[in-house]
Amino acid sequence: MGEEQGRRSSPLGARIEIRSCHTLEEFNRCIELERLVWECEDIDLTPLPVYIVAEHTGGQVFGAYDGAEMIGFILATPGYRDGRVFMHSHMAAVLPAYQNQGVGRRLKLYQRTDALVRGIELVEWTLDPLEARNAYFNLEQLGVVVRRYSSNLYGRTTSPLHGPLPTDRLWAEWWLRTPRVEAIVAGQPWPKKPDAKRIRIPGNIGELRRKDFAKAQCVLSEVREQFTYWLGQGYVAVGFERDASGGGSYLLQAYEG
Fold first, then answer.
1. pLDDT digits (tens, 9 = 90+) for 62-87
2. What does the alpha-carbon distance between residue 118 and residue 78 come to, in Å, rounded to a whole number?
3. What CATH class has 11-195?
């Protein structure tokens, strides 16, 4: 599932405490946050045993607390591919009242620190290719790169945030020790090549999902076609440039790292 966006810092973000979750009460609160953020039916909620198994098998379940109240969380499970252990960050959520205030970024940086302490250098997750704010957060504020695209990965869901569209997803790769990521998380922009390829997305996809499904489907089809082509040519999404409409463009270039 997609990650919640967050700014670099704010008075609210600074007072939030991030800590590991261990109890059934905490895991049930994570599920409650899922329901509040995605507004989905129970069939699409991550069940309690997944949180328990993640906590007991080397995964990550971290909560963001404002005082005694959990207002956000991250759930990640261990993965193994090509001889490398990594974390798959399945879900992250922040209550709407706390979004865009740095909470999501603090959760991700806590996740990064925990992974590095354990010798894990890759965290991956999926993100909706049509959500401009999340694209900017992931690519420009965390430093992920994207090499893969999946069509309708999770099937259609009951969440109004997804609407009736297929759940196409980009695969974010967060290589935690690269100079690029270290610079970006320290607040230093990483230069892009001037000849980068561009894939534009609109800023009103939520409205289109609700009011004009045909148009939203057309946008998704065009974005899917472009990503499939350029990623297939060996290009990698390394940045996101916002525009005045609230949308923006993914920047793709030949990239090693």
1. 999 999 999 999 999 999 999 999 99
2. 12
3. alpha beta
Q: Express each pLDDT in 138-189 by its tens digit.
A: 999 999 999 999 999 999 877 766 667 899 999 999 999 999 999 999 999 8
Identify which of 3, 87, 91 has the alpha carbon closest to the alpha carbon of residue 44: 91
Residue spans of the domains in the chain: they are: 11-195
Q: Residues with Cβ < 8 Å from 22, sequence gap 6 or more?
A: 55, 61
DSSP 98: G
Among residues 37, 10, 12, 32, which one has the least CA distance to residue 21?
A: 32
- With helix as H, strand as E and coil as C, how does 21-89 read? CCCHHHHHHHHHHHHHHHCCCHHHCCCHHHHHHHHHCCCEEEEEEECCEEEEEEEEEEEEECCEEEEEE
Confirm if 125 and 172 have CB atoms less than 8 A apart: yes
Q: b vs e for 46-83, b when ≥16 Cβ sit within 10 Å of the residue's Cβ? A: beeebbeebbeeebbbbbbbbeeebbbbbbbbeeeeee
Which helix (DSSP H) or strand (DSSP E) does residue 129 occupy? none
Long-range pairs for 208-217: beta carbons < 8 A, 24 or more residues apart: 209/162, 209/163, 209/164, 209/165, 210/160, 210/163, 213/163, 213/164, 213/165, 216/163, 216/165, 217/165
Q: Which of 6, 46, 232, 240 is nearest to 130 (CA)?
A: 240
Cβ(60)–Cβ(111) below 8 Å:
yes
